[in-house]
Design brief:
With 97 residues, the protein is an all-alpha fold. It contains three helices and no strands. Helix 1 packs across helix 2 and helix 1 runs antiparallel to helix 3. The longest helix is centred in the N-terminal third of the chain and has 33 residues.
Length: 97
């Protein structure tokens, strides 16, 4: 394998890892904002909430805890962990090849 190709693969793996980190950060930030009762009228809070809803659309309301904060932490937290795990697993696989 040529060094030039290998460098491109390393860059691709790095980009995938960074994207996974950003996705998990947005989800974690929404969890923090929700738990701390951030002002939902604030545009930053609205943006983070909308982005987190889109990212966690497959896992939100997966759990049926009685407390709303537990549903938010579990649903959005699961999505964040999955994105981190899968994103970094793919990045590591790319880096090895």
């Amino acid at each position: 394998m040529s060094p030039r190709y290998r460098n491109g693969a390393n860059q691709a793996g790095t980009v995938i890892a960074i994207v996974a980190d950003v996705m998990a950060f947005i989800l974690g930030l929404w969890i923090l904002m929700y738990v701390l009762d951030a002002n939902r009228a604030n545009q930053l809070v609205q943006f983070v909430h909308d982005a987190a809803n889109w990212l966690a659309s497959w896992s939100y309301d997966l759990f049926t805890f009685d407390k709303a904060w537990a549903r938010v932490v579990a649903g959005y937290g699961l999505a964040a962990v999955v994105y981190l795990f899968v994103g970094h697993a793919i990045a590591n696989r790319i880096h090895r090849h």
